[in-house]
């Protein structure tokens, strides 16, 4: 039982920063798209 709890905790510790990384990448892509859209509308 301790192994399962330890593995779950390790997975969460590694998984949560990955979510933030993906979220940040999504924001960067969105900003890039907005810049392209703004340039196209000029």
From TrEMBL:
Entry keyword set: Cell membrane, Lipoprotein, Membrane, Palmitate, Signal
Protein name according to UniProt: Entericidin A/B family lipoprotein
Entry's transmembrane regions: none
Gene Ontology BP annotations: response to toxic substance
Keyword hit for Membrane: yes
GO CC, one annotated term: membrane
InterPro entries per UniProt: Entericidin
Cleaved signal peptide residues: 1-18
Database matches in Pfam families: Entericidin
Family (UniProt): Belongs to the EcnA/EcnB lipoprotein family.
Natural source organism: Iodobacter ciconiae
């Amino acid at each position: 039982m301790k192994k399962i709890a330890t593995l779950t905790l390790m997975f969460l510790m590694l998984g949560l920063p990955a979510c933030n990384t993906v979220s940040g990448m999504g924001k960067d892509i969105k900003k890039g798209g907005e810049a392209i859209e703004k340039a196209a509308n000029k």
